[in-house]
Amino acid sequence: MKFEIEKRSELGRKGWIEVDGKRIEVPGILWYASSRIPPPSFANVTLRGDIKAGGSFFYPSDGDLPPLLNYPYFFPDPFHELVGTWNEKNAGEFYIADARAKISKGEKIYIMQNAIELYANPRNFVDAIIAIRNKIGYKPLYAPGIALPYNLPILIYAGVDIVDSIAIILKTRKRIYFTGEAEYRLDEIHELPCSCKYCRKGLKDFESLLMHNYEVMKNELIRIREAIEYGNLRSIVEARAAMHPHIASILRLLDAHHEYGEKRWPVSGNKMAVSCYSMDSPPIRRFRERISKRYTKPKLTKILLLLPCSSKKPYLQSKSHSFFRKVLNKISNRNIVHEVILTSPLGIVPRELENFYPAAHYDISTIGKWSRDEKEMLQDMLDEFLKKNKYDVIINHLPADMNFLDVDAISTSDGRPTSDESLKKLEKTLAELTEEYEYIYPSWRRRDDAEAMLSFQFGDAANGFLDGCNIKGKFPDYKIYCGDKQVAVYVAKRGMFSLTLPGAKRIGEDYRVEIDDFVPKGSVFAAGVKNAGSAIRAGDEVAVYFGDELRGVGVAKMNGEEMIESRRGEAVKIRHHI
Fold first, then answer.
1. Of 538, 501, 531, 534, nearest to 516 (Cα)?
2. β-bridge partners, 498
3. For position 58, what pLDDT does the model report?
4. φ/ψ bin of 216: left (φ > 0), alpha (ψ from -120 to 50), beta (otherwise)
5. Domains located in the chain, CATH noted
6. Residue 84 confidence (pLDDT)
7. What is the pTM of this model?
8. Which class for 74: exposed (0-12), middle (13-18), buried (19 or more C-beta within 10 A)?
9. What is the mean pLDDT of residues 185-193?
10. What average pLDDT does the structure give for the chain?
């Protein structure tokens, strides 16, 4: 079997599997075929045609799929372990994966045992998906009998690679008509909301209704593949969650298992539309946790200026923040002031981090009304931030709708931060306060900013990175030089520092990829990776080594765990090599 993932976006992935010359696109559908039920004309792989359907434990078949022993998920552990041993003995290129049994990892397609029963209970389904994934890693997973057009996005997002058309057939027998978003009884529809050739001719029998439903399923699969390509699968999932409580439960439970999603979600991405389901999504929570665990404020700053967010991102491109910046530009000792933006769902965004993903990429409805969860999140983050980062003075320049915050600060806003009165008061307050401090040169502040940005990006791996270095350029386009050599440049569009070869030598082992003895001139493929740091996520800057010798530097295309496990696919896109 050959298996390769070519595109990772959010938790979705896109690629292909080849089994005995049969190529299955991922994410993909096995279309059921029999003498009575024809597959759709566009089916490239059929179940019971190309992929032989296995028999039962008592009536095994010689097909590709192993015989399936059906038993309830609630049976005691010893039974699951017994059947797991039997499954292993009978596994070929397909392996029945029981979430409660031992599973050996190999080059196989894993079939989720009890999929129908598990999907009926969101908690059991999520627990089983994660348990199986923890055992099989990044190998392909097939969940039979549960896919419908409207739940296909959450299945792919959760970690399923392959589904089938069985559930559609069973629903069609009950005269169920599908759209991409929902299902309806055909006899209750007054006007068909579809212009496929089957709907235009009239759905007079089982086969015509089935072919319409197949068309909807195919279109949904295409939509998901495109969403993976452009990085907006989560938006589709959240839209479905708003319509289906069952899907909402699965999504919320997946988010509760933060480690599972976080390590699979790249550190860079496209615009995201934030909804009530986004508060604990992997990139949002990762940002908040890095503020808490990695980030330390610029050391020389003594005055904290709390500012509201803006609808336009990055904030500095907005009209409101241009007003704030004009005020600061009038302050001679402005580098003593640290600007921090308070927002939902990220909580706290220091000015120097506003281009990091997803701070510059989220779009949220702002109506001046804060939910209880948002208020609690923001207050908790601010309390924790101020406990870790000490300031002499705090200035509150927030709108009236943020008066719920409990913070000991000088207020400079009349409730409208951009009003003439508020801006004048802010200028007067800053001028008076900053005069009391030693002048902070721009070069000193640039160094402080760069150190804070590097820590947020690399964590402890950035310790000592700036030793012997100086920073040039205007925010945010900082360039770091050590002697006459450039070691890093901040790329605002990517929202992170890009490293040169000298810079790669300064990064700790957490962001190091170890390869076999070759010079990586274009890409490092997973087959050539011997080891990789556990902190590496797709999109991260990584240093590529053979032993103690630096061979290259580039961008990770998969996380470190997957680099070690995978045998195919691009692991690192090389920018510079020796």
1. 531
2. 489
3. 47
4. alpha
5. 2-256 (3.20.20.105), 272-434 (3.40.50.10630), 442-577 (2.30.130.10)
6. 85
7. 0.94
8. exposed
9. 94
10. 94
